[in-house]
Design goal:
By secondary structure, the protein is an alpha/beta fold. It has one domain: Domain of unknown function DUF4159 (Rossmann fold, 3-Layer(aba) Sandwich), CATH 3.40.50. It contains seven helices and seven strands. A seven-stranded mixed beta sheet has the order 2-1-3-4-7-6-5. Strand 1, helix 2 and strand 2 form a beta-alpha-beta unit. It starts with a helix and ends with a helix. 36% of the residues are buried.
């Protein structure tokens, strides 16, 4: 038990040191299977993040092998990682524990089921993994007032390329969403072809739905970097006024 506490303490200090980097790094988890359905979307995401916010970014993403013996070291370089896919995900149990230590020490994991199916192997496997990672917590659902809806932009509705669910799911640890789970395929809203045209239409709301979905993903990134600053009381009257309009 003492060794366990000491490990978490040291891991937390190490993450705090690495997270002090002044540039945001787009990090993605790799596993056997379709882990990278949209290989180039990170470029647009980083460009828009840098243009619309004060965040400085690294232009190249980091790919982290979720099965690696070096996962603890690799993932501690970044405050935010994403996990995408449309089929079963398998993670060694020892690395599930590493992921838990990562998020309880300050990191955030965004997970997205890109299958666009109500019943998918990806969803089934992710729910099993999350139960192993956090047996004491259950996935919750966001509502209109949840912090992710107003961490940077004010968002009224959760969507993605498709509008399957009107919420995100999340696991909360010490009043912070450490795991954020989407099944609306938000990432596909960013995908472009070589001519710069969007590849996938957004159903049923078209381009306005795409715009709102992109803003939601930027909110998720900003929250992972900045926390709940827009939930402070000094901001609440302004936010409430905007929401009431």
């Amino acid at each position: 038990m003492i060794k366990r506490i000491y490990f978490i303490f040291v891991f937390s200090l190490y993450i705090s040191y690495i997270f002090a980097s002044d540039k945001f790094i787009f990090a993605q988890l790799k596993y056997p299977g379709n882990w990278d359905p949209y290989p180039d979307v990170y470029k647009d995401i980083l460009d828009i993040l840098e243009i619309t916010t004060s965040v400085k970014v690294e232009k190249e993403r980091i790919i982290i092998d979720i099965s690696s013996d070096k996962l603890k070291y690799e993932i501690s370089k970044v405050p935010f990682v994403i996990l995408l896919g449309n089929n079963e995900v398998i993670i060694p149990f020892k690395n599930i524990k590493v992921l838990r230590d990562y998020v309880t020490s300050g990191g955030t994991i965004f997970i997205e089921d890109t299958s666009e199916l109500y019943n998918s192997k990806f969803d089934e496997s992710i729910r099993k993994i999350l139960k192993q990672m956090f047996p004491e917590y259950k996935l919750k659902k966001t509502d209109r007032d949840y912090v992710l809806m107003k961490s940077f932009y004010l968002i009224r509705k959760v969507t993605g390329r498709i509008a399957m669910y009107n919420y995100l799911e999340y696991i909360e640890y010490e009043n912070r969403p450490v795991i954020i789970y989407s099944r609306n395929n938000i990432i596909a809203c960013w995908a472009r072809d070589r001519l710069g045209n969007y590849i996938y239409s957004c159903i049923p709301g078209g381009e306005q739905q795409r715009f709102n979905s992109q803003k939601l993903f930027l909110n998720i990134i900003m929250y992972s970097l900045c926390g709940t600053y827009k939930m402070d009381k000094v901001h609440q009257p302004y936010i409430q006024e905007r929401l009431n309009r």
